Amino acid sequence: MNTVLTERYFEDYQTGEVFEFGDYLVTQEEIIEFAKRYDPQPFHVDEQAAEHSSFGGLISSGWMTAGVMMRMLVEHFVSRVASMGSPGVEELRWLRPVRPNDRLRVRVTILETRRSNSKPDRGMVLSLDEVLNQDGEIVMTVKGWGMYRARSVPN
User: Fold this and answer.
1) What element of type H or E holds 51?
2) How far is residue 62's CA from residue 39's CA, in Å, rounded to a whole number?
3) pLDDT value at position 154?
4) Which residues contact 37 (CB under 8 A, 6 or more apart)?
5) CA 50/CA 42 separation, integer angstroms
6) Across the chain, what does the average pLDDT equal?
7) Average pLDDT of each block of 10 consecutive residues along the chain (155 residues)?
């Protein structure tokens, strides 16, 4: 596991690097509040209905889990000096339900880096971002690209 640095440039990301960080407690109140506003399915907003669902209890919206992951990425991983956003994700998977009182953390694996041919002052970093619960189970995965400023431009 590598030390997380938030002042990295494109050249500092190396294929194969793995970072792990974060500690986020998911509360029942937050699950319900988020779901009422953005994803009001019964198994996200109603404890009794959730008990009779295929999940057997209240679970977080996958979109809330994605938001929690993004928060941890910004706080612990995304470069404060070089991030230029993201052109998007290639894949998102919700593998296990997130329940009240779960503690989440993130593991990032750098899969590929490539400098832009048309704009050599920047590069793209493909990563696999995994959200894990307190038992080490992967609850969500995202494979996506980040765009980062380069420290230097090749001649």
Assistant:
1) helix 47-51
2) 9
3) 79
4) none
5) 6
6) 95
7) 75 96 98 98 97 97 98 93 95 98 98 95 97 98 97 83
Please say whether the beta carbons of 71 and 20 come within 8 A. no
Report d(CA 55, CA 79) in Å as an integer. Answer: 37
The full set of domains in the chain, from first to last, is: 10-149 (3.10.129.10)
Q: Which two tokens stand for residue 33?
A: 């509040």
Extract the tokens encoding 23. 């500690």
Q: Which residue has the tokens 């440039």?
A: 9
Tell me the residue type at 2: N
> Which pair of tokens denotes residue 95?
């593998």
- If one counts every other C-beta atom within 10 angstroms of the C-beta of residue 150, the result is 18
